Amino acid sequence: MAATTLYILYNADGSVMGKLSYGYRKLTNKDKDKPTCAACDITHGGLSLDETPQWKAAKAQLVESGAVKEVKQFHRDELDREDHMLMSGIACIMKTKEYVQSQGLEFPMVLARDEKNGLRPVMKSDELAAFKGDPHTFLEKIREYLGPNQSNL
After folding, report:
1. Which residue, 81, 139, 141, 152, has most beta carbons within 10 Å?
2. Cα separation of 22 and 84, whole Å?
3. Which of 55, 47, 28, 45 is nearest to 139 (CA)?
4. pLDDT at 41
5. How far apart are CA 88 and CA 85, in angstroms?
6. φ/ψ (deg, to 5) at 132
């Protein structure tokens, strides 16, 4: 089984101003079918700065079951830091930020990275919105995608 890292990338910045901006965008968003950050809704329940207990449990299940090696969560402005860590360990991997830009992907999204297949999209913004903030439904879909042998990766 390939050691897969799952990346959840938020449609928000991690700075204080980024969080304030996200809160404003969330409160003024009138389109309930297109949330401001569907990944934020799944992991934090919307405007909370803390992960929900349901998300913490779902994330732990993914790792403990061996479905993924780890789950990493990043705001848009934190990708450079992740890329620096990756490049210091494995020089041949395409940087996460470069990948997102080269593929024209929109935040939020879920990506997976493994040694065999590199970096690839798992879920895009519209797919995340369909979960309506439910981490358990998200977990089921991730497990379905990864499958018993992670043949989709």
Report:
1. 139
2. 26
3. 55
4. 92
5. 5
6. 50, 40
The beta-carbon contacts of 143-150 under 8 Å, at least 24 apart in sequence, are 143/62, 143/65, 143/67, 146/4, 146/67, 146/68, 146/112, 149/1, 150/1, 150/2, 150/4, 150/67, 150/114
pLDDT tens digits, 139-148: 999 988 877 6
- Positive or negative CA dihedral for 130, 133, 139, 140? negative
The total of other beta-carbon atoms located within 10 Å of residue 43's CB is 25
In angstroms, the Cα distances linking 10 to 14, 89, 153 are 9, 24, 21
Give the span between the Cα atoms of 13 and 10, in whole angstroms: 8
- Provide the percentage of residues in the chain whose pLDDT is more than 70: 86
| pLDDT for position 67 | 87
From 57, 61, 76, 74, select the one nearest 143 (Cα to Cα).
Answer: 61
| φ, ψ dihedrals at 5, nearest 5° | -105, 130
Q: Which amino acid is at 33?
A: D
Which residue type occupies 18?
A: G
Q: Which helix (H) or strand (E) holds 122?
A: strand 118-123
